[in-house]
Amino acid sequence: MPTARFKDxxxxxxxxxxxxxxxxxxxxxxxxxxxxxxxxxxRTSAEALGTALSSDAPFGVQAWSPEARGRHLNQVAxxxxxxxxxVIVGAAATVEDVEAAACPGxxxxxxxxxxxxxxxxxxxxxxxxxxxxxxxLDAAVRRGLVLVLHAHxxxxxxxxxLLPQWSTLPEPPGIILTHQTPNAIEGxxxxxxxxxxxxxxxxxxxxxxxxxxLAFVGFALDRVGPWSGTTDPSRKLEKLxxxxxxxxxxxxxxxxxxxxxxx
Length: 263
Prior knowledge:
Blueprint: E1 3-5, E2 10-12, E3 15-17, H1 22-35, H2 39-52, H3 66-82, E4 85-89, H4 95-101, E5 106-111, E6 124-129, H5 134-142, E7 147-150, H6 156-166, E8 175-178, E9 183-185, H7 196-207, E10 214-217, H8 233-250, H9 253-256
Parallel strand pairs: 4-5, 4-10, 5-6, 6-7, 7-8
Antiparallel strand pairs: 1-9, 2-3
């Protein structure tokens, strides 16, 4: 699929989404260098996903077409802009934390498996996921929640396996596609970010949602949250230091992290 250096402005309905701040995209290069990951692997996975969902009815699902994905993006943006509060739910959240953050008019954006901490009566606008959320992500998909599906070099086999399965559901989830390369990829977006949690914060910044509308639950630096997918705990903790860097660049560290971790 043709790509070009990321300079364009993406439009969905009445919302115009400008490219993410260069320093946020630079973090993705720094992460690749730190972990020894190849840009080409991220690019090929993203381009393959974009190609797989480029038709009018990918996998037989019209709701996954580029036009439909644009509508999903616009709807998520509108709901977040109209909400009294947008709560980002991280992997260390408890059900009690999430309930305490609820208020009239609030909506929730969950980081992958952390959607399991959000009770069904609360309003989940989207789940930001690179597909390691396990049974909780699967339950969200079966509820038809919108998925902000992220492509990278390590999850190509996951999306190749899961999309055909989800296409057979009575109501497949709405999908928005993101990637982590410095190139523009047709039908996909790079709002910045690395982990699902900080990518959710980047996504909302990219949507233009005011910081004053945001609240955070379940973000931690010193422990792996119970809603994280199967992972190497020491490697996960290392990744969380990059989450902090992204949140710092966004100016959201004070709001996202408990004060004893933000010192």
